[in-house]
Design brief:
elongated
Length: 191
């Protein structure tokens, strides 16, 4: 009860005990890595694991079954937990890890990626190529973190209004602008 990761030292039969594993993941989401494959496919148990808030606990998604990594509702809950966690530790790495381990289908899901980039613009790096070319979504990303410009399509790197927004947010974003905009006087003045 005090250290969910102790599950790693338990007998295999205990790693398949649903109640014991549920208690372990409530303590530390990362305890999911030691659960039986059957329990890694248990939606309720995985939800508890991704809701566990602590250092890197939302990355528990990496240990879930592939089916659950493609479960939109579950991954959105992991995104929300990661955002909540980043409020405590000021790091956005948790959100990025959730997206890293979610399915490619969800990385192409506009609603999910919009929620992610509004909380961490750099999450754009995990979006599908189509979403990296979605002007509205990219604008949300660069408003949150101008450096997200690095992950946009070449077409949007040449969009003056979007590049201005990115550079206003973070002057270092200028390095990701298209060659044509790099020397734009207004963009240079921000830098």
């Amino acid at each position: 009860k005090t250290n969910g990761l102790a599950l790693g030292f338990a007998d295999e039969s205990l790693k398949a005990d649903r109640e014991l594993v549920l208690e372990a993941v409530r303590n530390s989401g990362l305890a999911l890595q030691f659960a039986s494959d059957t329990l890694k496919a248990d939606r309720e148990l995985v939800l508890e694991a991704v809701r566990s808030i602590g250092w890197f606990d939302t990355s528990a998604l990496q240990f879930a079954s592939d089916t659950l990594k493609a479960d939109r509702e579950l991954v959105l809950e992991a995104v929300r937990s990661a955002v909540k966690s980043s409020e405590f530790n000021s790091y956005h790495i948790e959100l990025e890890r959730v997206l890293e381990f979610s399915s490619d289908t969800l990385k192409a899901d506009r609603v999910m990626m919009l929620e992610a980039v509004r909380n961490d613009g750099l999450s754009l790096q995990f979006a599908s190529d189509a979403l990296k070319a979605d002007r509205e979504l990219v604008l949300e990303a660069v408003k949150n973190d101008g450096r997200a410009l690095e992950f946009t399509s070449d077409t949007l790197k040449a969009d003056r209004e979007l590049v201005l927004e990115a550079v206003r947010n973070n002057s270092w974003a200028r390095q990701y602008a298209s060659y044509e905009l790099f020397d734009d006087p207004e963009i240079q003045n921000i830098f």
